[in-house]
Amino acid sequence: MEVINEEIFRAYDIRGTYPKTINEQVAFTIGKSYGSYLQEKYNKNTCIVSHDNRLSSEALTQNLIKGLVSSGINIISLGYTTTPMNYYARYLNQMPGIMVTASHNPKDDNGFKFSFDERGNARGEMIQEFYQFLLTQNYDDGAGVMSFYDVKEKYYELLLSSVDIKHDRKLRVIIDCGNGTTSLFAPEIYNLIGVDLIVLYGESDAHFPNHHPDPAVEENLTVLKDAVVTLKADVGIAFDGDGDRVGIIDEKGTYIPADKFMIMISRDLIPTHENKRILYDVKCSKALTDEITRLGGVPVLCRTGNSYTKLATRDENCIFGGEFSGHLYFRDKFLGFDSGMYAGLRMVELLSKTNKKTSELLEGVPKYYSTPEIKIPSTDTKKKEVVEKIKEYCHNEHFHTIELDGVRVEMEDGWALVRFSNTGPNITARFEGKTEMVRDKLKETFMNLIEKYNK
Q1: String of DSSP letters for 342-376
Q2: Half-sphere exposure of residue 332, counting CA atoms within 13 Å on the CB side?
Q3: pTM for the complete prediction?
């Protein structure tokens, strides 16, 4: 067995750089180990497999499947899909599965999002336990059978049956597929909903020649913002590389962070539903919790990471949940998994029910001054040390902290969050205040600490 870098086994998935830490032999070994693990620990003999459009995904998938079938596991192959399509196939077949993707990471990265049961993706200790099993090399031998299944038609039916888009006015919608996997599906589905559709970067090209496919980073959406204004669109909708996250641009070309989009959805759901529980992650603005509370809802805090937030949205019986990165979970009339295409459809549905413009759906939101999420390059070892030292500093200063995920320092007039990324060698930070001065002071203090400890 080729030596496998332990650092690719992260908190939410397996993720690394092709071909340095993720390659065909690693994919084969993971397949062989996963198939054996499923049979021995979960008594399962079949799993779903599909992949995104990254340059290395097809070769990795072929070798993953070789490893899987050599363990005796049967495979249902979906071919190219978005990650949410993989989730839906798992739901339809009531079985675990693997998605070959590195989501929004740089083009040379790749990895595996996987589950062992129907509760959701493996996470935390589950992934570490699987890694320890992999190291034993105690694998099964067999001859699994592979079959093929096309989930696209049923997935389209699910999306269309889970929205009610009014046609009293013709909405102009621009979608930005970022040349990612949604390029293969989003133009088709959005053409079915009766809007005036304009598509940006709708050609599948895993070199990502136009911009990095991460809609949580405003700089990636410059062209979309300009197009919305120039073409007088009602809304712009962007997707990430594997289609499980969304970004929204209003009619003025203004970027709407996910926590503000969650305010729009909360305003729609809380007054009309008995279940008023809304989940959010530690990165979200206080404006969201203020608004949930004002509407009579119940805000539920969770650590960051879609494997955790998605599971907690269900386990905490929330009607809706999400996180700052753009993962959103609708449980009012959808199945509760994160789909960027579906979240975008809900934005269109919301607009279709009112004569308001997108920007007007945020009227009256409490004003806070926030930074975007800031990423500070580090190493996978150093990033953890830095966060521990920040915690120690906060304890010494007797700050009120929330340590659910890194450390969030709660002040009377603002907050600061410092945590380490679970998807890459980075420290991440975000700051917010009732005034720009408060925000900037918090930022200065903690960024100086990060720089000091990150040397």
Answers
A1: HHHHHHHHHHHT-S--TGGGGTTPPP-EE---EEE
A2: 23
A3: 0.96
Residue-wise pLDDT tens digits, 84-115: 999 999 999 999 999 999 998 899 999 999 99
Rounded Cα distance, 102 and 242, in Å = 8
Instruction: List residues with catalytic annotation.
Output: 103
The whole-number pLDDT of residue 349 equals 98
Structure tokens at 25: 């032999």
User: Phi-psi category of 428—alpha, beta or left, where left has phi over 0 and alpha has psi -120 to 50?
Assistant: beta
Query: Quick one: how far is CA 111 from the chain centroid?
Result: 14
On whether the CB atoms of residues 144 and 73 are closer than 8 A, the answer is yes
- The answer to whether 206 and 217 have CB atoms below 8 angstroms apart is no
Task: Identify which of 341, 303, 2, 379 has the alpha carbon closest to the alpha carbon of residue 124.
Answer: 303
Instruction: Measure the CA–CA gap between 82 and 243, rounded to whole angstroms.
Output: 5
**Crossing angle (nearest 10°) for helices 83-93 and 152-161:** 90
Strand runs labelled E in 45-89: 46-51, 74-80
- What is the tens place of the pLDDT at every residue in 303-316? 999 999 999 999 99
Q: How many whole angstroms separate alpha carbon 81 and alpha carbon 268?
A: 30
| Residue 88 to residue 230: CA distance in whole angstroms | 37
Q: Go through 77-95 and write b for each residue having 16 or more CB atoms within 10 A of its CB, e for each that does not.
A: ebebbbbbbbbbbbbebeb
Per-residue pLDDT, 275: 98
Enter the tokens of residue 152: 């696209």
* Cβ atoms 238, 182 nearer than 8 A: no
CA distance 150 to 162: 20
Intervals of the chain under pLDDT 50: none
Rounded to whole angstroms, the Cα distance separating 357 from 347 reads: 11
Q: b/e per residue, 199-221, with b = 16+ CB within 10 A?
A: bbbbebbbebebbbbbbbbeebb
Please check whether residue 291 is in contact with residue 365, taking contact to mean a CB–CB distance below 8 angstroms. Answer: yes
219/217 Cα distance (integer angstroms): 6
Cβ-in-10-Å burial (0-12, 13-18, 19+) of 406 comes to buried
Measured N-to-C along each axis, helices 286-294 and 258-269 cross at an angle, to the nearest 10 degrees, of 10
